[in-house]
């Protein structure tokens, strides 16, 4: 596994329950600000389901990934709602739940 993927997984493990970050947030946090698509690829390939909470990573506007690796956007939404994350329509309320 690449150092990049490992850096993504280690950072995402720090995102607290009930909070979200964007793919770009992750990319910037690991020192690769132009690599948000690669962050998405790393999370889609996440071999650590249940350890790396990839459901807490969303698009910058709060949209969910239609290709969420562990069951699609409906499963991702249910997982976030179970943690107390609220939505405005079909998007996460980023002003309230985005973790900085």
Describe the structure.
The chain is mainly alpha-helical and 100 residues long. The protein is 40% helix and 8% strand. The strands form two sheets. It has a two-stranded parallel ribbon. A two-stranded antiparallel sheet has the order 3-4. A hairpin with a 2-residue loop joins strand 3 and strand 4. Helix 2 packs across helix 3 (36-44). The longest helix has 10 residues, at 3-12. The radius of gyration is 12 Å and the shape is globular.
Quick recap of the structure?
40% of the residues lie in helices and 8% in strands.
What is the CATH domain class? Mainly Alpha
Radius of gyration: 12 Å
CATH superfamily, by name, is: Winged helix-like DNA-binding domain superfamily/Winged helix DNA-binding domain
**Percentage of β-strand residues:** 5-15%
Features:
mainly alpha; Arc Repressor Mutant, subunit A; two-stranded parallel ribbon
């Amino acid at each position: 596994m690449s150092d990049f993927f490992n850096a993504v997984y280690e950072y995402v493990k720090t995102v607290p329950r009930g909070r979200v970050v964007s793919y770009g947030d992750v990319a910037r946090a690991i020192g690769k600000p132009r690599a948000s698509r690669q962050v998405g690829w790393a999370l889609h390939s996440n071999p650590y389901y249940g350890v790396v909470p990839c459901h807490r990573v969303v698009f910058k506007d709060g949209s969910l990934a239609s290709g969420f690796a562990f069951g699609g956007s409906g499963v991702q939404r249910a997982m976030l709602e179970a943690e107390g994350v609220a939505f405005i329509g079909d998007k996460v309320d980023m002003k309230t739940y985005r973790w900085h």
